[in-house]
Amino acid sequence: MKIKKTLFTILLVFIISCSNTNENTTKLCFQNKCITAEIKDTFASRQLGLMYRTELDEDKGMLFVFEKPNKYNFWMKNMKINIDMIWLNPEKRVIYIEENVPPCIDDPCPTYGPNAQSLYVVETAAHFSSKYDIQIGEIMKFK
Fold this sequence. Notes:
CATH architecture: Sandwich
Number of strands: 9
CATH superfamily: Protein of unknown function DUF192
Structural class: alpha+beta
Radius of gyration: 17 Å
Strand order of the largest sheet: 6-5-8-3-2-1-9
Number of domains: 1
Distance between the termini: 49 Å
CATH topology: Jelly Rolls
Shape: globular
Largest sheet: 7 strands, mixed
Low-confidence stretches: 4-22
Mean pLDDT: 88
CATH class: Mainly Beta
Helix content: 10-25%
């Protein structure tokens, strides 16, 4: 009985933590625009990303933080909206941009990413990069 109670408590804590609506966020600033971004820094949270979301406000985004620099490719499986993806190196310098990437309709889904190592990826609303003139080499600031 004690084991069942412990397992139930663990399951309950897990469910509550997964349903927490107070996301961990940070303010990201490019040269011409700041956004509030949800931080995704665990394997599970990075896997889920923006899947199943039906909208993304222009002043919102998602920051994927990895443990070490590497070549990180992204795909649009289970996405409902077009987005921009911006890859940054460890110095937070923009190294690659994919703009207005559409959801994946058929398997296998195409992947997107630079042929260089990054440490961060920022996802924003579609056309954000061109609207705010985000450029390769630009440095993003965390606030």
